[in-house]
Every structure is written in C-alpha cells, then in structure tokens.
Amino acid sequence: MVLGGGDADGTGCALTGRDAAMDAALGALYGGGGEAGSRRTSGARSAGLGGSAPNVARWLGDIRTYFPSSVVQVMQRDAIERLGLAALLLEPEMLEAVEPDVHLVGTLLSLNKAMPETTKETARAVVRKVVEQLEKKLAARTRATLTGALDRSARISRPRHHDIDWNRTIQANLKNYLPEYRTVVPERLIGYGRAARSVKKEVILCIDQSGSMAASVVYASVFGAVLASMRSIATRLVVFDTAIVDLTDQLDDPVDVLFGTQLGGGTDINRALAYCQSKITRPADTVVVLISDLYEGGIRNEMLKRVAAMKGAGVEFVTLLALSDEGAPAYDREHAAALAALGAPAFACTPDLFPEVMAAALEKRPLPIP
Q1: Which of 5, 6, 92, 348 lies 20 to 30 Å from 47 when distance is taken between CA atoms?
Q2: Are strands 286-291 and 201-208 parallel, antiparallel or unpaired?
Q3: 82, 87, 93, 94: CA torsion to nearest 10
C-alpha cells in the first residue's frame, strides 16, 4: 500500500478523509529521517511524534483505529526504537494506550528499575495481559506433549492393548516372523507405562537475561510456569547476566518471574552453568536448557568443560540460541560450533516447537532441530 499526497509525491492526487489520516499516522513515524519531536517546516516532511505525551497518545489511538493489531505492534516497536519513546512508557497513560505484545513486555522489563511507583502497577497489568494470552495459547499443548513423553519414557513388559508400543514390539519379535502367514507372532509385548504422580524428571531452565534476549526471557518464563505446574516434572528457573538469580520459588506466577529479571548487563555463562550443575541430583533424569546467544563474557573453556561433564554424567543438555518468533538470531558461531562438537547442538527455537524439543529431551531421542 502506498499513501501520499504532497507536492513531492508526484502523483497529482490529494488524499482526503481516512486515507489522509492513515498517511499522517505513517508519516509521523516513517516520513523522513528527522528526530523525535521534530516539526514540519515549509512543507518538508520529517518523522516525529512531537515532544509531548498528548501527541503520542493521540498517535497511539490513531494507529489502533486505522491498522490491525499485528501492524500496530510493529509500528509501536518501531516508534520505541526509531524515535526514542521508551521513556514515555514510564507514563501510566501511555501504557494504557499501547497494544501489549511480547516486545513491549521486553521494553517494560528493561525499564523496570527506572519506573516510578505510579507506573509499576499499570506495567504489571500490561505484562500480565500478555502472559495470560501466551499461557492460554501454549499451556494446553505443552502439557499434553510432555505428559505423553513422560508416559512413553516408562516402558512396561505387560501392557494393556492400548498401551502397546507396536514399533518396539515388532522389532523385538522379528525372529518370530512366519513367512506363510506373513506376520510376526509377538511372544514379548513392550508397552508404554503411565507417568506416576511422583517426580520423574527434573528440568533446569538457565536463561540469559542480556538485553538482546528480551523476548526469549518472556517466553521462557511462561514455559517455566507451565512446566512447574506438572507434578511429574521438578522445574528450576535460573536467570543470569554476570550475576545469577534463582527464581524457582516464583514460578507459580510468571509475572513475578519477569519482574524478578533485570534485562541488560554482561554475560557469564560459565558461572550460571556452575550454579545449575550444583543443583543436579539425578543426572540421568535431568534436562538442562540453556537459552543464550552464547556471547560469553566468562571463561570459555570452563563453560565447555561443564557442558561436557554434565553430558558425561547423563544429563540431557539443550542449547537454544533464542526462544522467540523473531527469526534468525545473532549468536556466537564459534561457541555454537564447540557445543555441537560436544553433542549439544545450538539452534533457535520458536515457542510452537519448544514442547516438541522438550518431549524429545525427556525421552532421550534426537532433538527436532529446525
């Protein structure tokens, strides 16, 4: 879609009504290369939303009127990045006007320490709305997928008919193949067990909270809360930069988890993995998920030694370069290659794929690397 109507557009057409209003909303953000707060002079067009909160509030209302929600979210994100509007999100009126999404939550978390008290409750309400939307979308499928994986991980030799693992049963009875009947006579049945109510697996989510990982932190916190709600999985959630914070005791409310993070700062993966390693009590039943772009500020060789030691002890180790829908992430390719050489390939993962990745890790089968 192309909108315009000034002398410089060269179309000879003038915009009116709704088209003119849409053009003005787009022009305020994309119309020139000027700074935030710049004003139009002598007919020249320049980007800017003005320096006052009322101008921004009016613009936020306009774009929600003229564009669908998905486009509104993109425009809001561009406005925050291009025009330096992050500070305005500290205003409660602005927060009430914006369309909440994962990227906005990331911005709010990065501003958490700078927020005045009058804004924090509004910010929590915005974050909670996004978290509840994500939980509604992701929780049911995650629980169903992982419950199935936990059931399949327990093999039994006298299964009921609907619990028979036919692939393994046929494989185990190939010696009993009867050519004249073209069939296998199964002398030994192999079946899926049923997950007990006691803890069967332990999962440690180790999340890099550097500024570039904002969306991943949001999704990981939601998934952490979902995993923690499953009685067969003991879940621990650890966030880190150069320091480490264990947020496991807050997993019943992912909003508390998110506000317990501090986006930004450096990265010490080795130190974080050392902490996670110290919490492992049943290596063969433990899955460690490192979510990081691998730009290590700590001791690289020690980091790799820790991963090798955990894998050698029987831990399933998963490295996600991102847990988001943002596309191909930037990451340290040398560290990713070193992890792959240890049998711990690093890859980006979308929220939709994450349940399948976790199911494969719990069952100790190859990961569904995209």
Answers
A1: 92
A2: parallel
A3: 20
173: tokens are 């009875």
Mean pLDDT for 57-79 is 78
61 — phi, psi (to 5°)? -65, -40
3-state secondary structure of 338: helix
**Pairwise CA distance, residues 289 & 179, whole Å:** 48
Q: How many residues are there in the chain?
A: 370
Q: CA 89 → CA 77, 116, 121, distances in Å?
A: 12, 11, 13
CA atoms within 13 A on the CB side of 177: 7
Question: How many angstroms separate the CA atoms of 193 and 196, rounded?
Answer: 9
Task: For the chain, give the percent of residues with pLDDT over 70.
Answer: 82
> Among 79, 120, 139, which residue's Cα sits nearest to residue 103?
79
pTM for the structure as a whole:
0.69
Distance in angstroms (rounded) separating the CA atoms of residues 147 and 125: 31
SS3 184: strand
Residue 339: strand pairing partners: none
Q: How far apart are CA 276 and CA 273, in angstroms?
A: 5
260 phi, psi to nearest 5 deg: -90, -5
Say what the pLDDT of residue 34 is: 41
